[in-house]
From TrEMBL:
Xref: InterPro entries: Glyco_hydro/deAcase_b/a-brl, NODB_dom, Polysacch_Deacetylase
Subcellular location: Secreted
Residue span, NodB homology domain: 95-283
PROSITE patterns registered for this protein in UniProt: NODB
Gene Ontology cellular-component terms listed: extracellular region
Protein name: NodB homology domain-containing protein
Keyword entries, A-Z: Membrane, Signal, Transmembrane, Transmembrane helix
Length: 283
């Protein structure tokens, strides 16, 4: 009897593994067609070999990822291109991808910009307005240089407060105030926003829209499709971790699977299954 049970368990495990591989393989095949799969928006923070944190990628690892995108025929597009695709159905180049950086660390200027230029890639930097000209962040002059050399500057709020955790009376200053401050530094319209930590709600989205932003981004895993809420767009966060290249590859090609696993983890936590949630492998 025990042998029969063990065999059945083994068959179930094999079947689950087979289904998983078929599912991931199907996603990989579809990931080259943005009209079906959506447009990936990658989310980075720091890239350097000096200051390491959970948000930092090694320079060699970031270079390896950009080399992969280049060899696989991905084309970086601007947020203006993405907005036109969502709202007007604009045709995009084959394998479009958006690369974004949050906060505005100095290594974005010193380490990232030369790497992107070597592959003729463009990106967006979501800048914290009150971090400009401060230690370990870019200066106003560096931002101007980046904006003129393939790095579009957009907003990451005024003071980088997690909006749903602070007094709602501060939201206008964070969102509209951050936009106005950054426009003063840059001398150009600021049209796009990334919420700190991705935290937002319906009222924050309303303020964002009324402040003149065209789109706003979270850190919820997924790819961007025309049917998405313009003020709660998904991004694929890329960190160092234990398996940075595998995580990057899976997030790029299997975004729906990543989104499902993270959502399942959160659901388990919210319903009191903390231990089970902590056992889940997340990439």
């Amino acid at each position: 009897m025990l042998l029969v049970v063990c065999k059945r368990i083994l068959y179930v495990i094999i079947a689950c593994i087979a289904v998983l591989f078929i599912t991931l393989g199907s996603m990989y095949c579809l990931s080259s067609n943005y009209k079906i799969y959506g447009v990936p928006v990658l989310n980075y923070h720091q890239v350097n070999d000096k200051y390491h944190s959970a948000l930092t990628l090694d320079v060699a690892e970031f270079t390896k990822q950009m080399e992969y995108l280049h060899k696989e025929g991905y084309h970086t597009i601007s947020l203006d291109d993405l907005y036109a695709y969502i709202t007007e159905g604009k045709e995009l180049p084959e394998k479009p991808i958006v690369i974004t950086f949050d906060d505005g660390y100095i290594d974005n200027y010193e380490d990232v910009l030369p790497i992107l230029q070597s592959y003729n890639m463009q990106a967006t930097i979501f800048m914290i307005s009150d971090a400009i000209n401060t230690d370990r962040f870019v200066s106003a002059n560096q931002l101007q240089f980046m904006n003129a050399h393939g790095f579009t500057v957009e907003s990451h709020t005024n003071h980088h407060r997690m909006l749903t955790f602070v007094d709602p009376s501060t939201w206008v200053d964070e969102i509209k105030g951050g936009k106005d401050t950054l426009e003063g530094f840059m001398g150009k319209p600021i049209k796009y926003l990334a919420y700190p930590g991705g935290f937002n709600n319906a009222e924050i989205q309303r303020i964002t829209s009324e402040s003149g932003f065209k789109m706003a981004f979270t850190v919820t895993p997924g790819t961007v499709k025309p049917s998405d809420n313009l003020y709660a767009l998904p991004r694929l966060a890329i960190f160092q971790g234990d398996t940075p290249y595998l995580s990057f590859w899976l997030r790029l090609h299997c975004a729906p699977f990543i989104a499902y696993t993270w959502q399942l983890r959160d659901t388990l936590r919210d319903n009191g299954f903390t231990t089970l949630a902590n056992l889940m492998l997340l990439f």
